[in-house]
Amino acid sequence: MALRFAKLEGAGNSYLAIDGRDEDRSWSALARAMARTHFGVGSDGIAVVQRSRSAQVRMRIFNSDGSEAEMSGNGIRLFSKFVIDRGIAEPGAEGLLVETGGGLRRVHPTLESGRVVGARVAMGEPCFEPERIPVLLPERPDRVLDHPLALGSSGARGALALRITCLSIGNPHAVAFPEAPVAAFPLAEVGPEVQNHAAFPNRINFEIVNVIDPGNLRVRVFERGEGETPSSGTGSTAAAIAARLHQPMEDRIAVHLPGGTLYVEWPGSGEAFLEGPTVEVFTGVWPQ
């Protein structure tokens, strides 16, 4: 049966949004098929609308490899544009409440001529407890804020030791601050090693970060289930939080990624907020 969808992007991170409230499908298989660049539509994954008993609407995110993600910061902004623009759900005075695999999230849309052009997402409080991220380390620290991670040889690169800060912001992240420019970092080689390291039983999203100044970061992201991606909302949030844990930073940080710029607010405790654009690229019909 044909299935209608919309392709949306935010800072270069793209998802195919689908109203799945009355659909019974293998979403993992559909994500793998639709996300393929040369054989499908091409995207970082799919965002599926479902009914919720605890919020106005439920979002399920499936990566391009078919794995289901707990949460996506860019994905939830794009998802919210899809449901609001189509009247599936309407934001109230306190925004749009969305159920995700990482918990309830509240989205505050920016509207122009009745359409969503951007959004601010309440991302929740970061979690630093290793067992909840999860991170398995023999030392059993209370927090993984600056931990050495030894990586094996990868081709001609040789062995590499990184220092990582780990946290969860609805999904797990490991953040590193290399001295060299992030543009020169061998992310394609190192990313899979970090993602699949024995310390991370559920795999992990990996960010490399340069601090430009107290209000600006330069970031690249190797996303779980996707590989390197032009941008990541949760990755940007994790990078900004980790930077603030290590040195004085402003409350509002501009995170510059290959796909664009996102903004993260975190005063050093409590809930973090993510802000960025939302663009609908086109609509289509998937024939299968």
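The above is record 1. Record 2 follows with the same two-line structure.
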Amino acid sequence: MNTGFIGIGSMGGMLVRVLLRSGVLSPQDVWAANRSPVKVDVLASDFPGVHIANANQIAAKCGLIFICVSAADASVVLAQMDGELYPDQLLVTTAAAIPLRMLENRVPCRVAKLIPSITQEIGAGIALLMYGTRFTQEDRNQLENLLGHISKPVAITESMARPAIGLTSGGPALLAYLLQSMADEAVRNNAELSPGLARELVQETAGATMRLLSEANMTTDEIIRRVAAPGGMTALALEILSQHVPQAWQTVFRKTREREIKTRESLAL
């Protein structure tokens, strides 16, 4: 099946490149369009055979189309595709704020949402999927088999999307910030500890902790219990964190949900 990608930015560019590198897509079956021609020219240079196209051509040529532009830009892209889309096509948007019902009312094809993660750069991590009412089980299998080469596809409902996106697509940035701030505060607490060493210590520890979870099948509760001996320094640190961290996460999830609701209310496809 010809597969089209509209928007070769941060996530769209990552998605098409990883799928091509994995071998699940052949360059000659890929059609790519981007507002700036430079990015799509570089893609075609890196993967000879990729077709450089516009949105209208992709709508006419491809059975599976990924629209990897912001919710605000989606209306322009859809207008460029008018007259070429047809019911048997699969149209997948990466714009979380676009309601599937709104997209179904705008186009004749079967629609879904994909929220990828930067972890797909290494062929790992969760790719969230949400399906419109016209998506069949066969369609789901096709899309999940494709994405299964670079991720662990997980289907969710739109109602649980915002916190799930925070845990997966946003998760790498949030976790990276926590590790960075932990290392930075340790340096500020002791001038003899260099920033480079502090970050090496925290990164190696974080990587090993993830291995305990995935390879040793330890739970987070078990790790906490085994490390934080009663009355010890780690137990004290956890007590302090428990007074502040939950409230911070509450604010994070509340504010991001409020922002998404405002974005959704302003949309017009």
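The chain has twelve helices and eight strands.
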